[in-house]
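Re: the 89-residue chain
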Amino acid sequence: MTSSRRRVAGDRWTLRARPAFLYMMYGLLLWSVPLGLVGGVRPDVTAGIIRAMRAYFNALPEPLYALFGTGYLGYTAARAWGKAKGVER
């Protein structure tokens, strides 16, 4: 939920960050459905898609994964702490 303070402040990056991440995750999950259907009909095409995706993810530098993980865990911890202190809803 977005608090009314954020809406009033007009911080558009805060308003878009969480939905953008969730949409990306939903997209990855939904991508598995057509990939599974293609895999049932054309396993060779699916293997090629998987190889290309694996090459893409392997090309990303490991510090980028660490940065994402640190940021995500830090955000989650700060959010939980803020809720426990009563600063956020």
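Residues 4-85 form one domain.
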